[in-house]
Amino acid sequence: NAGVTQTPKFRVLKTGQSMTLLCAQDMNHEYMYWYRQDPGMGLRLIHYSVGEGTTAKGEVPDGYNVSRLKKQNFLLGLESAAPSQTSVYFCASRPGTSGYNEQFFGPGTRLTVL
Amino acid sequence: ELKVEQNPLFLSMQEGKNYTIYCNYSTTSDRLYWYRQDPGKSLESLFVLLSNGAVKQEGRLMASLDTKARLSTLHITAAVHDLSATYFCAVEDQGGSEKLVFGKGTKLTVNP
Question: Among all residues of chain B, which has the CA nearest to that of A56?
Answer without folding.
Answer: B97
